[in-house]
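call fold(seq) -> tokens
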Amino acid sequence: MQKTIDNIFELDNLKEIKLSENDEELKRIMQEYLTEIQFLSDMEDKQIEDALASNTELKEDTPEFQFYLENLIYIKQSYFIEVKEEETNKIDIETLQELRLEDLIDIAAYDGNTDIEINLQRISDVVNDKREEKERWKDYNVISTVSSLIEIEESNIEYISNLSDYIAFVSELDPAENFVSRGQKNCTYELLPSLHRKHGKDYEIHADKYENAFKQKIIYYDREIKGKSNEELRAEGQHFGLPTDYLDFTEAHLISLLFAIEEYEYTDQHSIVYFIDSLAYNIDTVSLREKLVDYSDPTVVESVRRYSSRSYFIKLGNSNERIHFQKGCFLKVSTQDKEEFKSKLTKYGKAVIINKNFKKDILKELFNLGITFENIYPDKDNVVKSIKFQYEEMQGGGNQ
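ret:
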């Protein structure tokens, strides 16, 4: 490969002609140096820059070097455009083979009494739509695609395939101590409390019904629940699946990563960890210079009562084992603030996308650091779950 790619660093006219303004010369180079350009297309821009520096006498940080580099990158981009146009003009056989009948017709609306008509144009349109969707999720498009979904700027999103890149991202948060985080197994899932996901309106009515039933029945299973505040009861219910207006976060970012990838066999979509500057969020929302409003203090709860229509980050102390081990906190989402809280998450948020093909590898790295399932779920079931992963996936016991 090196000998082949060297040829493109010997083109003197790339020092003199700006290819973006000379289509004829660009076309000639792409025809004569197709093999070299194919190799070039597999290189990152930084790799091209390094190769140019080591294969020519041009000095970096000079106008001549930058001129040559811009031409090389323009060739690479033009090649991608040309390949894309060629692909668009033919039906993708691989995608065609993946088509299902429900992709082509609305089976739910079919009454069984009429003939099914599927023409070539319909097949072609569906195949192209699916191909475009695949393109959106190619590695080089993932950040752009997720940015458009979660409305966080691309510069605040990282796409990672190993633990060291995740740790590097966390270490560069500024200031790191102001951030809380939340892991989700699917990067396309909307960041919403369970109450909002389950019901489209009348949140307060539904919340009251859930919480009143929980208060009445939980006493039979946990006598200590009697002395807990309404906020602590809500957090208790949240951890056992009760729909609430709380959104779980944590101050421990490795725990968030574990939450995101614990279902490591789920590879339909990439996972995600959200990072929110909760201090800035709370200053903006309730004018309190607190990273987490202390809801275990009744006087604090009373002082923020006037902000009931707003959303803000809270902590509840160690009201149960899970909150303690997970270093848990919550975003208390007001039922009157659904849209505003989303805009603030965008304003104060960052995100890491975890490549779905490397979740198991990253989970192994976490286990090697002592971060296991029992760290977030302190019970016998998850002790066993941790043992099984250690033996079957890390030691290869499941393959014998």
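The chain has a mean pLDDT of 85.
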